[in-house]
Amino acid sequence: MVIGCKDSDQEYFIRANFLPSISCLSFPDEFKRGKKNTVSLFPELIGQSITKFELIPFERAFTILLSSGDTLLFKLHGARCNMLYFPSGHTTPSKLSRNELRDDFQITIDSLSKNLDLSFENFESLEGNASKFIPTLGKVPREWLRSKGYIEANLEEKWALIQTLLDMLESPLFSIVKHLEGHYLTLLPEENPIYTSADPIDACNELFRYLVVIQAFEKEKNHWIKYFEDINKKSKAYIQKTEEKLLTLENDASPAQIADVIMANLHQIPKGSETIELFNFYTQKNENIKLKRGISPQKTAENLYRKSKNRKIELDQLYQNLSDKEALLEDVQLKLMKIKEITNFKALKSFLKDHNLISQQKEKLEQSPFKRFEIEGFEVLVGKSAKSNDEMLRYFAWKEDLWLHAKDVSGSHVIVKFKSGLNFPKSVLERAAELAAYYSKNKNESLAPVIYTPVKYVRKVKGSAPGAVMVDREQVIMVSPSGPRD
């Protein structure tokens, strides 16, 4: 979402990315609106003047006051970021930039404001509990306190650490740091920041670049690296297994040789024999040869000749498969080397297009045992059949994913994929439940119950029917069935 402003000949822009997986603000010097796929969300704001910006005390939010008395509230609550529009004289918003966050229609600006008592007396009464003293402390400052021995410190030492922390949070030096979970902005000292600035606007713009451009590129690139590494690993395992099988087949005596020995010694084999010792002129040794009861030696030899012929076909096929897999491995390793050298989206897209990988990925998705949706940045999988429900649960679900199913009726399993560091927003749960109700026998009900629980509490019972599972610790949510939305 972009808000454009103009002062004399100067233009200013506020760009807000409110995706749950990537929430951040930036302030570009220029912005060119696309001719397609854009919409004016708040036409009431066009032509109005901004009179004031106000920070909400001790909260991740600020307001923009307009000349008409209208107010815009930027609620920067991580995965639940939103912009709320308050018409003049209204205490609750009439419009949201993200309508799926329905609880935000009940928010008042006054309810967000916090007047924290930061005195030592209050700190002492709370026995140095940092979370109660400053409940809005984020993950990074809490981790800093922990690293400084806050938990084991006495009250005076804790107070000194809190004061040091507050002083640093007031210092205008911003750092961008990259961890395994991604990039984040901090006011605390870092040993190896990838970016530092005393200008908050520059810091926000740089963070936007890392989160939306660089991090998105790295995510896409890492997806394809993993894709090729998986093929590389499976190809090597197949080659090793095939080479071992070929070695065994080639070292074993050919069934045709045993058949030749039998045919050369038919006159020595008593009728009805199940084992006979014969001289093997291939190995120059006497060997015990097994014969099946009720089958003549001639028929046994015939079966061995056919088996030998089939083994020759099997050997030829294994050699062909081995050759094909070795060629695939060489191709994959070359692609893996090339993709690791790519440094930008343009080159990555060109690489994927040149190797026809996008169409291959789409075709693979179409053949998958589930439908795939995205809800506020969370991946949602919906089973296509009872058999695919089992397959999805067994091969595509992780213990921390969220599992949903229409209560007491047959229907599709629904999986909401877990995202590290993020709780499942209520709006995501409700939308996933609507899909679970829609893809069930309750599809035409006005209101339907849906059960949900983490995947780790869902188990398949041996011998049960396809799609049938046992569920523990489930909760129930009531929703209106609703299918895919364009």
Q: Quickly give the structural class.
A: alpha+beta
Strand content: 15-25%
Overall mean confidence score, pLDDT: 88
Residues in helix, %: 25-40%
- What global shape is seen? elongated
The spatial strand order of the largest sheet comes to 14-15-17-16-18-21
Count helical runs.
12
- Rounded to an integer in angstroms, the radius of gyration calculated over CA atoms is 34 Å
Poorly predicted runs are none
The count of DSSP E runs of length 2 or more, i.e. the number of strands, is 21
Assembly classification: single chain
Q: Please outline the major beta sheet.
A: 6 strands, antiparallel
Beginning-to-end CA distance, first to last residue: 19 Å
Q: How would you describe this structure to a colleague?
A:
It is a single chain. This protein is α+β, with helices and mostly antiparallel strands and 486 residues long. It contains twelve helices and 21 strands. The chain has helices spanning 109-112, 120-125, 130-133, 139-147, 155-170, 200-251, 255-264, 297-340, 345-354, 357-366, 386-395, 426-438; strands spanning 2-7, 10-19, 22-26, 50-55, 61-66, 71-75, 82-86, 95-96, 174-179, 182-186, 195-197, 275-280, 285-290, 370-375, 378-383, 402-406, 414-416, 448-454, 458-459, 470-471, 475-479. The protein has a six-stranded antiparallel β-sheet with strand order 14-15-17-16-18-21. The protein starts with a strand and ends in a 7-residue tail after the last strand. The model has no long low-confidence stretch (mean pLDDT 88).
